[in-house]
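CORE FACILITY INTAKE
Project code: CF-77B
Contact: R.S. (postdoc)
Sample description: multi-component assembly, two entities in total
Requested service: structural model of the whole complex
Turnaround: standard
Below are the sequence entries exactly as provided by the requester. Do not edit them.
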Amino acid sequence: MTVYTASTTAPVNIATLKYWGKRDANLNLPTNSSISVTLAQDDLRTLTSAATSESFEKDTLWLNGKEESLTNKRTQDCLQDLRGLRNQLESQDASLPKMSQWRLHIVSENNFPTAAGLASSAAGFAALVVAVAKLYKLPQDMSELSRIARKGSGSACRSLFGGYVAWEMGEAEDGLDSMAVQVLPQEAWPEMKAAILVVSDVKKDTPSTQGMQLTVATSDLFKERITSIVPKRFVEMKEAIENRDFPRFAEMTMKDSNSFHATCLDSYPPIFYINDTSKKVIRLVHSINAFFNETIVAYTFDAGPNAVLYYLEKNEEKLFAFLYKLLHQVKGWEPKYNKEQLNGFINTFENQYKDKIEFFIDPELYQGITRIILTRVGPGPQNSEECLIDQSTGLPK
Amino acid sequence: MTVYTASTTAPVNIATLKYWGKRDANLNLPTNSSISVTLAQDDLRTLTSAATSESFEKDTLWLNGKEESLTNKRTQDCLQDLRGLRNQLESQDASLPKMSQWRLHIVSENNFPTAAGLASSAAGFAALVVAVAKLYKLPQDMSELSRIARKGSGSACRSLFGGYVAWEMGEAEDGLDSMAVQVLPQEAWPEMKAAILVVSDVKKDTPSTQGMQLTVATSDLFKERITSIVPKRFVEMKEAIENRDFPRFAEMTMKDSNSFHATCLDSYPPIFYINDTSKKVIRLVHSINAFFNETIVAYTFDAGPNAVLYYLEKNEEKLFAFLYKLLHQVKGWEPKYNKEQLNGFINTFENQYKDKIEFFIDPELYQGITRIILTRVGPGPQNSEECLIDQSTGLPK
């Protein structure tokens, strides 16, 4: 049995201009363009190996060690497109193995707990598409592949690039012009860091696809968001990124998160993703920026209560003086900083800031937060030497 | 010393189409028309006595037993208008005492704890204006007086009428056409009841005047609300009230509350009035309506976390089966219902509904709620036989 394999990683991305609303649910075509920052893969990534062989009997996925069905429509749409492209190659070169006709085995692993409530579907579909494209030796570039990943999960298209990424909504009915492009590679603005505050919440959220459909159908304010507010902000946020203008980027990021959650609240029945802990984080961020009289940190919230804070490396000491003081009880600091550095944050707070603070610091904030993930802007999908599939059996190692 | 006195009560009103935004902060002219229900005064009212005498030395207010300044601009604007109207009478009839030149003593008491966090300024300014108008024997009708009360506190103008009240925003720069009118007297739709869930919250809200200004200045979605959404809803909600169409009235009430809080969230920095307990109440209301497959109850939230639920008397048993089951621990039931009636609600829940419930009932909801106030639609300001001022001294009794 000949088993062909290929492996790749793909990153998580967190939108700063939110994707919320589908104009075509079948093709995952959005009602507006969006922008995101790709996060470093040391902390958050999916590793996916794809294998194919004439002897495989059915498409099969092993996700984090568990066998899962590959028959869901979204995955099949992606695989069908990839097989179509492979088929074009095979028809041009008869010597190629007829992989487009064979079944696939996919093995995928995240390096972060799914319990963290971080949207892993973007990294998952990006890795799936890239791994299979590599297996098939497809010539398509990342933007072209992003159209396929988009069909799996809208925001997955943005995980095909590193750095700062735009998903252009496009206009075509078939979605051919709805794809991701890179606004700026991470090397051009590498100082961007992110702190993810994982917020405890017992209540299950409305799934985002269902939530989007409800907002599109019922929110009176939503139309204004997609027709006037986001198109203007899309241009301005790209400019802010190109100019590496953090305060402007940060302000638009916060406003867009609020605008998105406002349209959720304006849906009927209303959808709530942010909770009282999220609100405390929002208030804290505004207080810190007011304290320094400068926008040094931005918050953004996806379809859940977790806060993602963006800040520049040069302001880390200022930010962490507050953040570590308030959240030293939660896990996630120690893999990144040693005791001395952590004590430094506390000392900065106690010696330089404490006496000047005029805002309310909630000493119980940490109770609503289960962990902090400290990361930064990072690259797109990477070739992986590690293969999760046993070449001799075609099964997970 | 001759002391002239007059006394009145005035009710609280709770908007179902929200007033949020001033186009003229000085005159309290709103950016949109609004609608409210006036609540019964057995439960919530201000009683105000006004006195004047040539011998009084300064305008003085005693509010709930405490002497307070009457020099704030809003109150002085009201008093100046009232004195102007009195002055017109005096200039037409020289035999009248020259009250317009004399100082005023005002004594005012609420029959509900201000700690409840219920906006008492509407009832307070309405009672102030009506008491002084009565003292001055002014011929102006309630709509004309509502223009004056509006200058004290915007929503006060709606407390000049009972039943269902519209505040027409008007267009004039001087605010002469911005006043309250009655949509329907309470006798025409007396079945409307209200349950106020007083929600505990440690955090002080952004004061509403400050919040409004911030929303007007910074929310991108706000303009859409006031130019397209509210004008349409104003016409439709008046129609729903005139037709006594509870489901339609209820749906618009809920949507408008959500729309208002969405624009607060879209402000920068965002304003939060509803908290996690408020959200649980919102979810519960939608679940109850879904359970009965009929809109039997509506929620609305002002600039704070307290929920006001509107429902029709005929549906009380259905609603209270859930509400008393979940909130029997909070105070406020027993003055209105005896043990047998309260047990009846529990029995209805246990015997008729419990086994059919498919939604999540949060057994800890009561922990976020400090009391329930059970009331209904009620009349406008009432003459009061009780006078809070000692006729011989001109001071509080």
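Facility notes:
- The mean pLDDT of chain A is 95.
- Residues 192-376 of chain A form a domain with the Alpha-Beta Plaits fold (CATH 3.30.70.890).
Invoice: internal transfer
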